[in-house]
Amino acid sequence: MAAENSSFLTEFILPGLTDQPGVQIPLFFLFLGFYMVTVVGNLGLITLIRLNSHLHTPMYFFLYNLSFIDFCYSSVITPKMLMSFVSKKNSISYAGCMTQLFFFLFFVVSESFILSAMAYDGYVAICNPLLYTVTMSPQVCLLLLLGVYGMGFAGAMAHTACMMGVTFCANNLVNHYMCDVLPLLECSCTSTYVNELAVFVVVGIDIGVPTVSIFISYVLILSSIFHIDSTEGRSKAFSTCSSHIIAVSLFFGSGAFMYLKPSSLLPMNQGKVSSLFYTTVVPMLNPLIYSLRNKDVKVALKKILNKNAFS
Fold first, then answer.
1. Where are the domains of the chain?
2. Does residue 11 sit in helix, strand or coil?
3. pLDDT at residue 259, rounded to an integer
């Protein structure tokens, strides 16, 4: 029924970032490099956390899942984007487009809530250190993780179900490098007011709820930090939080800029640039941010490298 409602369309055309032939090949190698760094960085961090028993703590449990999410949703988007640079007609089937849309949204929404869970973990570690092992028990961490992926599934299902009810016109050109909600709605030949309202509400929840919880966590964290007497203690607490603050700012800033504005106020070409941040740049930077600014990760990496060198 959903496919029939889509007005006979069997495929969409994804023109990519630009139609200028002179920059296609340089952009291909640039984003191929980004993707290789993303894959190596995130899989490397996953492997490092898995192999080192000292990193088997709630903080690194969530970081492990953040790296897994970054790797997955970058892999959902980037290979198809790379195809647009080297192929004359970068097409994707209707079913493939809806599948890409679902998994992209699943992992993006999951990322917003995993960042929220990480903020809560930081709050407990700094504000209630004596109760940390009890509050962040394996059972609690697992429940939080189930909530993260549950919200990801709910958000992806809501958006994809709405999109499968849209009637598309004969024009199957999606002005983007991926199947995303707003570019697909531009291909509709009927009013998309209800769909855009649904996008605003669902994205408002998926961005608003984690943002509020992260904000509250950091207000309490900062309040606790300012009550620490030693300069070294305050410095260590700030250092612990700084990586997460950078990751949150990049992810939520670019996501809110893309989705929480009416489409009439945000040209799609400008939206493409904003999308690049949370689909390409953020997954690449997260493992670098959390490893280069994290003493435990650097120590664990040195141990493994020294062990391999000795062997």
1. 10-293
2. strand
3. 59
Write down the pLDDT at residue 197: 83
Contact 282, 114 (CB under 8 A): no
What pLDDT was estimated at residue 5? 45
On whether the CB atoms of residues 178 and 258 are closer than 8 A, the answer is: no
Give me the average pLDDT of each 10-residue run along the chain (311 residues): 52 84 88 95 92 88 95 93 85 92 94 94 89 93 96 92 82 86 84 79 85 91 80 71 80 68 53 78 87 74 69 56
Bridge partners of 13? Answer: 91, 173
pTM summary value: 0.87
Alpha-carbon distance 239 to 229, whole Å? 16
Structure token pair of residue 125: 């570690």
Identity of the amino acid at 171: N
Which uninterrupted H or E stretch holds 13? strand 11-13
- Length of the chain equals 311
Under CATH, what is the fold of the domain 10-293? Rhopdopsin 7-helix transmembrane proteins (1.20.1070)
φ, ψ for residue 179 (rounded to 5)?
-85, 100
Give Cα separations from 244 to 22, 155, 293 (angstroms). 38, 23, 10
Tokens found for residue 60: 């690194």
* Tokens (6 digits) for 164: 């499968």
